[in-house]
Amino acid sequence: MARPRSLGRRLATARIAHHFTATIAALLALGLAARGEDYPTHLIKLMHGFQPGGNVDVVARIVGQEMSKGLGQPIVVEHKPGQVGNLAAELIAKSEPNGYTLLLVPGAHPVIGATYKQLRYRPVDDFAWISTVSFYPFVICVRDDSRFRTLGELTAAARLRPGSVSYGSSGLGSVQFMAAELLANVEKVKFLHVFYRGEAPSMNGLLGGDVDFIVTTTTVAAPHIQSHRVRGLGITSKTRSRELPDVPTVEEAGVRDFAVISWSGLAAPARTPRPVIDRLNAEVQRVVNVPAVKTRIESFAGDVRGSTPAEMRALVERQLAMWTRLAKEAGIHADSAGPAE
Q1: Does 137-235 carry CATH code 3.40.190.10?
Q2: pLDDT per residue over 48-80, tens digit each?
Q3: Which terminus of the chain has a smaller tally of CB atoms within 10 A, N or C?
Q4: Rounded to the nearest 5 degrees, what angle is found at the Cα of 138, between the Cα atoms of 135 and 143?
């Protein structure tokens, strides 16, 4: 009887050893993945929530193309327009946190958090922040043949006849909309808001004479100003733009204590492994220092600047608080509004 017991013990020991070896191998594989040493191994999607041709799309394509070189994998830019970027943000928030689905985050992200009360994601906590890419002001634009020669003339007309001066934006929840409403709030006037489904369509509306003015990014405004189809009445930064030196700041145009700076950056779903985030952050820092990238983004008055993940999270939190205050003061609620991009 001793032999069978001994054989049974040996078989049991062998099974335990095999199970232990398999467990160790699995743990080592998980550890390798957690360190991100094999990331990335296949195509990466870089998503944004806006129509082609706007500032977000242009930055996404510039950055994605250069990042693909450093990461050694293709990066495909996908645009998922809807609710001023809400749809793309929601899709990313619910995506697998593995580093293969990323979001090009616009400065509208905290605006959306401030104005939409029925979001299906948390604007801060449902994302792993990677790095900022660029910062940029907006330009208040009219057609070159507009009757408004200055920003003062435009606001004076709106004050004289409330609702008679119209502007176009990408919709409630866009920074362009909030910048125009901030101007109205500061100047104590009432503008007529016209919705468009993106920056490029709003510029087409201006060029077609459908609206009196738009607030748009320098990316969209600069080519039209330089070709003399559009005039800039004011730029929303504290200092004049290198690319648009003849456009005064909004403060220089007579509106005190007014400044709106937006930005773009990258994020991933929350719970993306920190080594993957670190790898992506390092790649963004490389990209923003590539001369061709800096020159291209700076050509439409962007300030190219990366950040740490913690700095980007703090930026989102800070602007979320700022826009929430304005939304409460102006009674802005975007959930039940009309069409938005």
Answers
A1: yes
A2: 998 787 778 999 999 999 999 999 999 999 998
A3: N
A4: 150
